[in-house]
Amino acid sequence: MINIINTARENALKKVNEELISMYWQVGEYLHEESQRSSFGESYIDSIAKEIQEEFPGIKGFNRRGLYRMKQFYETYAENDVVTPLVTQISYGL
Known about the structure:
Blueprint (H helix, E strand, L loop, with lengths): L1 H36 L5 H13 L8 H14 L17
Helix pairs in contact: 1-3
């Protein structure tokens, strides 16, 4: 019984982790594309961070630094044909 519960919990954490990494990747991709279009340099990240905080008060990790890291995450691995398909398999905190 304990093994069943532990296995289910581990599987649930892995799925949540996959979704979070996928979200970080997509946010990073969006920010990268926005940076290509923006004439304001990196200041667009500040306005996006503010918009997110207004929509989701108290959400963590979506401040300027967090968004910039998501952008870096995407930019670091986007061109890597080996890594890109494996991105959701990266383990954060597991």
